TrEMBL record:
<dbReference type="InterPro" id="IPR003599">
    <property type="entry name" value="Ig_sub"/>
</dbReference>
<feature type="domain" description="Immunoglobulin">
    <location>
        <begin position="84"/>
        <end position="170"/>
    </location>
</feature>
<keyword id="KW-1133">Transmembrane helix</keyword>
<dbReference type="Pfam" id="PF10091">
    <property type="entry name" value="Glycoamylase"/>
</dbReference>
<protein>
    <recommendedName>
        <fullName>Immunoglobulin domain-containing protein</fullName>
    </recommendedName>
</protein>
<keyword id="KW-0812">Transmembrane</keyword>
<keyword id="KW-0472">Membrane</keyword>
<feature type="transmembrane region" description="Helical">
    <location>
        <begin position="41"/>
        <end position="61"/>
    </location>
</feature>
<dbReference type="InterPro" id="IPR019282">
    <property type="entry name" value="Glycoamylase-like_cons_dom"/>
</dbReference>
<feature type="domain" description="Immunoglobulin">
    <location>
        <begin position="185"/>
        <end position="271"/>
    </location>
</feature>
Length: 727
């Protein structure tokens, strides 16, 4: 079926130093005895001998950067502290911690453990810098070390000073059984110069965390276990990083792990993609600032759009609010806002939504049956206008942001705990069964107090995949697997070859981007995709490549179209106009409209939306990056602003005699928009971050609702089962 775009989702991270003062000076009695044997020596010789003896005996045994032999004024001992001071380790394994030394000039110190159990030892790691005030220590245990919690004293000495600190060491029982490792996901994709995280599962759990190394990786690629790994937990978070020197391509690598006296390995596939130019990171930050600055901080609602001329729209879009909720963790990860700042913004939003009135009144309510009206007054949060309905897909986008925050904000603080409580409560009250009652189990598009349910249901293929994933994964109002079967029943109508690529075809690119901004579809397949031998990620790559091929062919003869100027999706436009060109051809244009190139829902009036290409960077970086660079070079001063890319531009619209719906017409350039749309800004931000780090995908892979929904829909493979993704 054709999706009513504007009416639904589109309406807007020592040893070896010989220390001075380590040996005691000669005892005074020995010195005086030696002096007596030379009683006939002149007094001056006595003085000289005594001076030489004292000077020679006080000297240390060489080494660079010796510690001071004379303590600073008032300092009588070393102050030592361990970070962390509580360690957890399996018998037969080891763990590291940082030892802080004050005064710093006495570091590194010689360390030892007092009152430690049998088999427990400590050693200073190589590389400790003299005078730095810190050194890395490794605490190791023997397989025979008894399990239990030990309070041990760490003693450190340097120069004339010494000190102690206390360690609590929790020793887990030694691992038994053959060591086994598995990586989730087993296929990683990241740009050269970037990083991404994945989980390593360890069996037996008592052996974790294990020490990991990549076998023969390309130059510039390495792995490291993230801080916070808990001994005996059976899992550890790992970061894979690459430098810009890594050759692009796909690598099949072996990841070795050692722990508990055993070794094991697992396989990783790493796809290294083109490095992201610095300008793209700036675009990402500017786009984040759009959500941070334009959202109503008092209630967390995000405006539908923001105009450089008029500011934010008077009404909020719940879909844009879902993208805003997804933006805040990205800001935290990049250091653009603090965890506390983002958490408070999220808490404000969720609290407002949870307490907003729900009911069937035509006015005075914000939603009904757990759903919210598509448009809410930006200030009051009540239904905006008299025609706004409960759009199921826009609610799904809102709830995707809610679920993302529920999984991300989990540091155990009071604020994070409140976020999780409210997020879970908000999602649990969304009554998907109610929204599907008109033609059960298909989800209806929309409901209004005056008209009830829309005559249309969501069937594929379009942006509504996430509607069904959430509905099937609901812990309270779950739809049956047959809902997914009904959703995919119309897929044959959308399957075909478009510009040489077989695909499920939906013209506007937002149909490929919305669900995949949150859900990592790489390598996971439902029954339909298994039958076609691809996955939804590959399908979206083909859709992206087809749009470029369409622009190169340029059947409509639009100005500027080519390999580096393409991108059709639902977006702003110059307005509803028709003109006759010099060849007698009638050219028609639209304002906000669903533009696209594909077997279904195709429309083109020469309007290019930067979000169409940029939000596809995860699918086809090799064609997206040069396209965006060309847009910047050729149109940047007109289409880039405070918050990144304006929504759209049209080089073919050169009609200066008319007043466009938004923006302006620049002679020789064409129509350029002056608005930013929340539902177009969101995919830009999220897909850039997914390309750089995989943040949103990694977090959402852990969400129980998403996992349950995918499994209910019949998805298998990939990160759901730890198998490699399709190439």
């Amino acid at each position: 079926m054709r999706t009513a775009m504007r009416g639904e989702s589109r309406v807007r991270a020592g040893n070896g130093i010989v220390r001075a003062g380590r040996h005691d000076p000669l005892p005074t009695g020995l010195i005086m005895c030696r002096i007596a044997t030379f009683n006939r020596v002149a007094g001056s010789l006595l003085v000289l001998l005594l001076g030489l003896a004292l000077a020679g005996c006080s000297g240390g045994g060489g080494g660079s950067s010796p510690a001071p032999t004379t303590p600073p004024g008032g300092v009588t001992s070393l102050t030592l502290s361990a970070s962390p001071s509580t360690l957890s380790v399996s018998a037969g394994a080891s763990t590291t911690f940082t030892l802080n030394v004050s005064p710093a000039s006495y570091s590194p110190v010689t360390v030892s453990l007092l009152n430690a159990p049998s088999g427990m030892q400590i050693s200073t790691n190589a590389g400790a810098s003299a005078g730095s005030g810190t050194q890395t220590e490794t605490l190791s245990t023997a397989a025979s070390t008894a399990a239990g919690t030990y309070t041990v004293t760490l003693s450190g000495s340097s120069g004339a000073l010494s000190g102690t600190t206390t360690l609590t060491v929790q020793v887990q029982a030694a691992a038994t059984g053959a060591l086994q490792l598995s990586a989730t996901p087993a296929v990683l994709s990241q740009p050269a110069g970037g990083s991404t995280t994945f989980d390593v599962s360890v069996s037996p759990a008592a052996a974790s965390p294990v020490t990991l190394t990549l076998v023969n990786p390309p130059v510039g690629m390495q792995v490291s276990t993230n801080a916070g790994a808990v001994a005996g937990s059976g899992t550890q978070s790992v970061t894979l990083t690459t430098t810009t020197a890594v050759t692009l391509g796909t690598y099949s690598l072996t990841l070795d792990g050692s722990g508990g006296g055993q070794t094991a390995s697992t396989q990783l596939t790493v796809q290294v993609q083109p490095a992201l130019p610095a300008a793209f990171v700036q675009i990402e930050q500017d786009t984040f600032n759009y959500f941070w600055n334009t959202t109503n901080a008092s209630n967390g609602l995000a405006p539908d759009h923001y105009s450089t001329a008029n500011g934010p729209s008077p009404y909020a879009s719940i879909a844009a609010t879902g993208f805003a909720l997804s933006a805040y963790p990205i800001g935290v990860q990049n250091g653009w806002v603090t965890h506390a700042q983002a958490a408070q913004r999220v808490l404000t939003t969720l609290d407002f939504l949870y307490n907003a009135p729900q009911g069937t009144s035509a006015s005075g309510d914000s939603g009904y049956e757990g759903f919210f009206y598509h448009f809410l007054d930006l200030n009051t949060g009540l239904r905006y206008g008299t025609t706004t309905g409960l759009s199921s897909v826009d609610n799904a986008l809102l709830m995707a942001g809610v679920l993302f925050d529920a999984s991300y904000f989990n540091d155990g603080s009071s604020t994070d705990n409140q976020i999780q409580t409210l997020a879970n409560a908000l999602f649990r009250r969304v009554n998907w069964q109610w929204m599907a009652q008109a033609d059960y189990p298909l989800v209806n598009l929309d409901w209004t107090p005056a008209s009830g349910f829309s005559p249309y249901n969501w069937q594929g293929y379009n942006e509504a995949m996430i509607v069904y994933i959430e509905a099937l994964g609901s812990p309270t109002y779950a739809l049956p697997t047959s809902a997914w079967t009904g959703w995919t029943a119309t897929y044959p109508n959308f399957w075909g070859t478009y510009y040489g690529r077989q695909q499920l075809s939906f013209g506007p690119l937002f149909g490929s981007q919305y669900s995949e901004a949150w859900i990592d579809f790489r390598g996971i397949q439902d029954a339909y995709m298994r039958s076609q031998g691809i996955d939804y990620f590959i399908n979206s790559r083909r859709a992206t490549e087809s749009q470029q091929a369409y622009a190169e062919a340029n059947p409509g003869g639009w100005t500027g179209y080519g390999a580096d100027l393409w991108g059709l999706t639902a977006c702003d436009g110059p307005g509803t106009f028709s003109f006759t060109n010099g060849s007698g051809q009638t050219l028609s244009f639209q304002g906000y409209y669903a533009r696209g190139a594909g077997l279904q829902d195709a429309y083109d009036d020469g309007t290019i939306a930067p979000t169409a290409a940029l939000s596809s960077i995860v699918f086809a970086p090799g064609i997206v990056i040069p396209t965006i660079q060309a847009m910047q070079a050729n149109y940047g001063s007109y289409i880039l602003g405070q918050y990144g890319f304006h929504d759209a531009f049209n080089p073919s619209f050169q009609y200066t005699s008319v007043t466009p719906a938004s923006g302006t017409v620049v002679p020789g350039v064409g129509w350029v928009d002056n608005q930013y749309l929340g539902i177009d800004q969101g995919p830009i931000l999220m897909m850039l971050e997914n390309y750089r780090s995989g943040l949103v995908w990694n977090v959402m892979r852990q969400n129980s609702v998403i996992q349950a929904g995918l499994k209910s829909a019949g998805f298998t493979g990939g990160w759901l089962s730890g198998t490699p993704a399709l190439q």
